[in-house]
Design goal:
The chain is an all-beta fold. It has one domain. The chain has a three-stranded antiparallel beta sheet, with no helix packed on it. The two termini are 24 Å apart. 0% of the residues are buried.
Length: 76
């Protein structure tokens, strides 16, 4: 198994802001964090085209980068 690094670019079509709502939260799924709505926050929703560019690096999950576990695949 390997990790890959890719660059991504976005072409934004529509962006809107709003106030998010928490309809249901199971604290056990997020480390028992209490998500009480005590502080105002903003939310953003985006419609965009996303382009994933060619893979730049492959990283081995066992061998460190210092020991040669990273391979450059393509240049920017």
């Amino acid at each position: 198994m390997k990790f890959v690094q890719v660059d991504v670019s976005f072409e934004f079509i529509r962006v809107a802001r709003g106030v998010p709502r928490i309809n249901y939260c199971d604290p056990a799924l997020i480390g028992n964090i209490d998500l009480g709505a005590a502080y105002p926050i903003a939310g953003t929703i985006v419609s965009a085209n996303m382009t994933l560019h060619p893979v730049r690096y492959l990283a081995d999950i066992v061998i460190s980068a210092e020991d040669g576990g990273v391979t450059a695949v393509s240049k920017r």
